[in-house]
Amino acid sequence: xxxxxxxxxxxxxxxxxxxxxxxxxxxxxxxxxxxxxxxxxxxxxxxxxxxxxxxxxxxxxxxxxxxxxxxxxxxxxxxxxxxxxxxxxxxxxxxxxxxxxxxxxxxxxxxxxxxxxxxxxxxxxxxxxxxxxxxxxxxxxxxxxxxxxxxxxxxxxxxxxxxxxxxxxxxxxxxxxxxxxxxxxxxxxxxxxxxxxxxxxxxxxxxxxxxxxxxxxxxxxxxxxxxxxxxxxxxxxxxxxxxxxxxxxxxxxxxxxxxxxxxxxxxxxxxxxxxxxxxxxxxxxxxxxxxxxxxxxx
Length: 298
What we know:
Blueprint: H1 7-32, H2 38-56, H3 60-81, H4 88-107, H5 116-120, H6 128-147, H7 149-157, H8 159-164, H9 169-191, H10 196-210, H11 214-239, H12 243-285
Helix pairs in contact: 1-6, 1-9, 1-10, 1-11, 2-3, 2-4, 2-9, 3-4, 3-9, 6-9, 9-10, 10-11, 10-12, 11-12
């Protein structure tokens, strides 16, 4: 593996593996909670933070990270205000984040070209500071999902019942939103703002399609995420294509192949079941007699 001799590729694979694990787990929860668009929304909010950091002369990575957390808290607050139309919170915050990013990027024309890496991702350019941030985010997210796995499971399928049973659903939901913002902000250097949802949603979409067990879906999503990131980075290095777009295409291809294989397996099983039923009927009742042939009876 020649590419692993380079330090930037080692950091790329390390960063990609870290984010793939927690992003895939997060994706399962977001899919089941009907909040798949939340990743896209927080990525646009994080881009506004990046633009603000560059405009004010601060660290774009740190400002984007903090802004994503603020956006996650804002989403949770707006969601409580619009209880009947909770999806409005995502639309409102996304419009605010994207419009702020556009205005700040236009005001900071000297560095506008550098935003390309934030839009499309540049995992091969991940520096040591970003890698450390990803390690911290991965550790924090892993601890959250481990210690709150049972409450999250109950809230995912029936939040009202979980609230009646005494769980602090408001606090847990707020923490979940904050962790989501942290993961989205940490994933931006890998696939960029425009494709960040692919790393979070696509592995989960395939895992939920292939299994109905919650724990199995989590493990399968992690495996798919790791496979997609590893294959995407390898293909990107060999073909000299953008890493973020290549990873997204690989994950999309895995989803398409997985769905087709599942349909093929179902078709084969249904055909086998049908053939088995016909053979059983023939063995039980014998061949169907020929009617209306009197030539043999005389």
